[in-house]
Amino acid sequence: MPMAKNSSNILSAKSISINKLCENAADYIDKNNIFFYMPDKIIADEIIDNFYNAFTNNDPDRKNNLLHFNADDKVTESILNECSNTGLFGGRKVVVVRNVRKFLKNDKIALADYIKRSNPDTLLILIEPDISTEINKIFDAELFLSKTNGEGIQNFSDRINLFKPEEFSEDELIDWVVKKFDGYKISKDTVRHLLLFSNYSPGELLSEIEKLKTYCYSSKEVTNDSVNLCNGIAKDFKETDFIKAVISKDSELAIKIYKKISLKKEVEVYLVILLSSAFMAIFKLQDPSSSRLNEFNLKRELKLWSEEQLALLPLYRKTASSISSKKIRNIIENLYNTDILLKSTGGVKFTKMFSLINNICAD
């Protein structure tokens, strides 16, 4: 049956989890051509690594057999030559091209022609970081259509696997972190504790993971205490009581709790970090779009990874509806300045903390 030239859904990318795409890479190299969306370079590199190992059978010669290009550089002829030529010593190779939406019209036509008659000894990986760009626009899909039938687009889609990896779910993110601690003992609860100190950024998480692996090299076990100490914090208290007291404007109780725990090393810095995180969460809850987030995305956005932190959500919501954005911004600025003072100057830390608590709790 002829395919309509103005079809709005000529090509479609398959939704798939990042973990599944990596774990089952060998199942997706059958067509020798792969496209996937991925805004994060670290995750993109991890996916590439799995495809490379599956296609080349873990060939160690990555210098010659893993080639990287960028469509921005306008070197389409070089890309296609590399794809068409046999690898060094007749082996298999992988060619990676990023920012594929930047290909010009004639480049896209040439690329499509290659894909329909691709080299079986080359795996071409096309990556687009902009997930908002529709896949048919990326490939100018209508250019592949025959004037009389859909054979052109069919030949193209038969020769390439198209993927749109989904964001990590909570369980997938935790599993991803656990795998990065290969050879170390770490519980999922400790991973959740680690996430309290890290924004959702694979780069930042990997940096924290490597730091912890070095710190725990002898014991080969990562615990909550390890995470705390690695962040310059030593604690054995329930920090949510302090946060709750400050947000509820109970300065007397907040100071009482602070005095009780103030013998711990660097506790002031830690409490300021927690308060900053709490008021950032309250500020974000004032954005109407926060009500449309699912449970995991809300936890990720607000950095509420532990059950104790999540239990504060009703208080955060109540506070968000009763405090002005200007007041929150002033508090966050106060916390930022206090953090700098605590880290860069001497003097009596009690005085700085008393002043901070009283300023936040004041009407």
Topology readout:
Layout: E1 14-17, H1 18-23, E2 33-37, H2 41-56, H3 62-65, E3 66-70, H4 76-84, E4 93-98, H5 105-116, E5 122-128, H6 135-139, H7 151-157, E6 161-166, H8 170-180, E7 185-186, H9 188-195, H10 202-215, E8 221-222, H11 224-230, H12 239-247, H13 251-261, H14 267-285, H15 295-302, H16 307-310, H17 313-320, H18 325-344, H19 349-361
Parallel strand pairs: 1-6, 2-5, 2-6, 3-4, 4-5, 7-8
Helix pairs in contact: 4-5, 12-13, 12-14, 13-19, 14-17, 14-18, 18-19
3D structure, described in words:
By secondary structure, the chain is an alpha/beta fold. It has 19 helices and eight strands. A six-stranded parallel β-sheet has the order 1-6-2-5-4-3, with helices on both faces. Strands 7-8 form a two-stranded parallel ribbon. Helix 14 runs antiparallel to helix 18 and helix 18 runs antiparallel to helix 19. It is elongated. The termini are far apart.
Elements, N to C (H/E)? EHEHHEHEHEHHEHEHHEHHHHHHHHH
If helices are DSSP runs of H or I spanning 4 or more residues, what is the number of helices? 19
> Residue-averaged pLDDT, rounded?
86
Secondary structure tally: strands: 8
Low-pLDDT runs of 5+ residues are: 1-8
Strand order of the largest sheet: 1-6-2-5-4-3
Distance between the termini: 72 Å
Structural class: alpha/beta
**Helix share bin:** 40-55%
- Morphology: elongated
Q: What portion of the residues fall into strands of 2 or more residues?
A: 5-15%
Largest sheet: 6 strands, parallel
The radius of gyration is 26 Å
